[in-house]
Write a structure and sequence with these properties.
single chain; mainly beta; elongated
Length: about 700
């Protein structure tokens, strides 16, 4: 045995059907021939048992188990007829048995005590398990320690197995002849492997590990015994990883799978007494506990008076929103020769105790020149979402103003002041006011459908602020804000959308690293304009070697219909850094524009349209990975990622088509490298250097933006 991983059976990161494998408080179980492996999973949102062929890795059977909320610690009967497991139902743990031949479920226990780690006897007639039924006081909720017990599925009779007083005993495993139970206990304060005779209760110690035998948690399974052999395997946490060791349960010597501190293990079986002093406790042994420790150990302190039988008060949960967080407030002040301005924003997030109801609010106030506040210059958003049921719904609404404009200076003459200078600030404002309702239904962890319907009103106006001053003296003669005038009739639109979403992507600190995701959406708009926005976004992440990812993306976004190219709608632009790098709007200069008969700047206009198609390909990996020795720190001390990329895209309008589909509209492309860094969890900074191939003479283009990788 070398400890080498032979085969990976499943991946919950990329398999939408299996959303979780129970491994923290649970382990898998082999059949009597050590050919098939059963594990506890969550499949399509329901607890299930998955059975795999250990040789081929093929899933042979998946059993959806109704009546329980979670499955833990499956144990396969040696004769193969049934699998026992610990099942959680309404927060309580009991033992269950699933008959593989009859496809039926049997509940073995039904109480408020914990029953975990079931293990079958070699004759498949008795199940050993760990329980607190002998030590817990349900009246005072004083939770006791785990002890061992056995149950006969045929009769339901439970028998106590005496081990250590005042110590936890968990994870029982039968010897091959059924005369002894091996288990993990901590009578000395350090967990080790012990054995107890079923006939007379004699105890023996099999290991003596300085750091203790343990799983992920103190109650996780960490011991397994082979069928028909005197060999057991157990796990030890050492040097920031778990090592697996084997021990001959007949004699006691231990060996390691791979490397590890084998000298820290015991070398033989040794009898032990039931009352063992806690060697892990610091002296003095008769230390008096502090008042705080005594109060914490008193299970009855602070409890309300006991109610008579049948008069216990149970109150249904009522959701109420409370403040969960406040967004980073912002304040900005500006001043120039045209006057001063001030603005700021603040956001609040509210939620109930269970996180089923969420309310988010945000507001941003902005003044015009001269601190002239207007309601139309205020941005505000409110969103409420209810996910207490499978059908999730919400409402959102608000107002967002989009401002643009310019400054002009002219010289004039008035009889009163002579030659004057007239400075004008022209502000064009597009105000979008909207309200919508949305609903979503998740099929499983990866797939969901979304619907949205609402109304939007878009208004267009202009305001001119003018300042008249004397050229000879510099004196301001007048400073006034003109009336707001309407530039165009408002757009009253009805918005609807339906989308199917699939997402199994696993994210690293700076970008997704494995899985896939896609979104297919159609969003009809009607009213003053009629068009349908169609979005198809597909992304795939392949990891050919650990921590090295090949990422690919294809996006089509387009407005189809008579109103899709209305001049009041902003055109789509493929030169944004998140689409085709190297063509950002701020990187263009006069040298890029060579006028033609149809355009003042063809190099820029080719990036605009009402429809677009973009493709991206990246090879990304952690920059410091080659210098990190620990496999658990894949990104090293600083989460830096390097990516080599190739981008391409094309934009077109109605009546045209991309050249790759036989149309006349040619696309653009670029290639380069990117460096991403996680900025303390607040944002991801990305620095790109790209070479755009359809911009002759432009050379390399450098860009920085705050965005994770696609």
């Amino acid at each position: 045995m070398t400890g080498r991983i032979v085969r990976k059976l499943t991946s919950t990161a990329t398999d939408p059907h299996t959303s979780s494998i129970e491994f923290i408080y649970s382990a898998g179980t082999w059949d009597g021939q050590s050919r098939r492996l059963a594990i506890a999973t969550i499949a399509s949102g329901r607890p299930a048992l998955a059975i795999y062929d250990g040789t081929s890795g093929r899933k042979e059977r998946e059993i959806s188990v109704r009546g329980v909320d979670q499955i833990l610690n499956p144990g396969w009967a040696p004769d193969g007829h049934a699998i026992a497991f610990s099942g959680l139902s309404q927060g309580l743990s009991d033992l269950y048995l699933y008959d593989l031949r009859a496809s039926s479920l049997q509940r073995l226990t039904n109480d408020a005590f914990a029953e975990v780690h079931p293990s079958w006897s070699p004759d498949s007639r008795t199940i050993a398990f760990a329980t607190d039924r002998f030590t817990t006081n349900l009246d005072t909720l004083a939770i006791g320690r785990y002890e061992l017990a056995t149950i006969e599925p045929a009769s339901g009779r439970v028998q106590r197995v005496q081990t250590f007083a005042g110590a936890d005993s968990i994870n029982p495993q039968w010897s091959r002849d059924g005369r002894e139970l091996y288990f993990i206990a901590n009578p000395s304060g350090i967990a080790d492997v012990y054995g107890v005779s079923v006939a007379n209760g004699a105890l023996t110690q099999l290991t003596n590990v300085s750091t203790g035998t343990s799983g992920i948690t103190a109650s996780s399974p960490a011991l397994s015994v082979a069928y028909g052999r005197d060999e057991a395997a157990f796990s030890v946490y050492n040097d920031n990883k778990y090592d697996i060791y084997t021990v001959d349960v007949a004699t006691g010597p231990s060996t390691a799978l791979g490397t590890g501190p084998s000298t820290a293990l015991g070398t033989g079986r040794a009898p032990v007494q039931r009352d063992v002093a806690n060697a892990a406790a610091l002296p003095p042994a008769a230390r008096k506990e502090s008042d705080v420790a005594e109060l914490l150990a008193d299970a009855e302190f602070g409890l309300p008076p006991r109610q008579p039988q049948g008069q216990s008060q149970i109150t249904d949960y009522k959701a109420s929103l409370a403040l969960e967080g406040i967004g980073q407030p912002t304040v900005a002040v500006g001043v120039n020769r045209f006057g001063s301005t001030i603005g700021g924003g603040l956001s609040f997030y509210f939620s109930d105790l269970l996180g089923n109801h969420m309310l988010a609010t945000a507001v941003q106030l902005n003044s015009g020149i001269g601190n002239n506040f207007s309601a139309k210059d205020t941005a505000a958003e409110v969103a409420y979402f209810d996910q207490s049921h499978r059908w999730q719904w919400g409402v959102l609404g608000g107002q967002v103003p989009y401002l643009s404009g310019g400054i002009s200076s002219t010289v004039g003459f008035t009889p009163q002041a002579g030659t004057v200078r007239v400075d004008e600030v022209v502000i064009d404002r597009q105000t979008e006011q909207s309200m919508a309702g949305l609903a979503a239904y998740p099929f499983d962890r990866a797939r969901r459908i979304e619907f949205q319907a609402g109304a939007t009103r878009v208004s267009f106006d202009r305001r001119i602020e003018s300042t008249v001053s004397s050229l000879s003296t510099g004196q301001v003669l007048s400073d006034q804000v003109g009336d707001t005038t309407t530039l165009a009739p408002p757009l009253n639109l009805g918005n609807t959308s339906a989308a199917f979403v699939y997402d199994t992507a696993a994210f690293g600190p700076t970008s997704p690293i494995s899985g896939q995701r896609y979104r297919l959406e159609a969003a009809p708009t009607f009213g003053a304009l009629t068009f349908t926005n169609v979005l198809a976004d597909y992304r795939r992440y392949l990891m050919p070697a650990p921590f090295y990812t090949i990422a690919a993306r294809v996006i089509h976004d387009g407005r189809y219909g008579s109103g899709g190219e209305d001049v009041r709608l902003f055109p789509m632009y493929i030169g944004y850094p998140a689409l085709v790098r190297g063509y950002d709007i701020n990187s263009f200069g006069p040298g890029d524009c060579v006028p033609s008969a149809t355009s003042q700047c063809p190099a820029f206009d080719r990036l605009l349209g009402s429809r677009m198609l973009v493709g991206n390909l990246e090879f990304r990996f952690p920059l410091l990975r080659p210098f990190v020795a620990s496999p658990s720190r894949m990104y090293g001390p600083i989460p830096l990622e390097v990516a080599f990329f190739a981008d391409g895209g094309v934009a077109w309008n109605r009546g045209e088509g991309p050249s790759l589909l036989g149309g006349g509209r040619k696309g653009v492309s670029s290639a380069g490298a990117a460096l991403r860094v996680n900025l303390f969890g607040y944002a991801v900074g990305q620095f790109d250097v790209s070479r755009p191939f359809q911009r002759p003479g432009s050379g390399w283009v450098f860009q920085f933006n705050l965005a994770p990788g696609f």
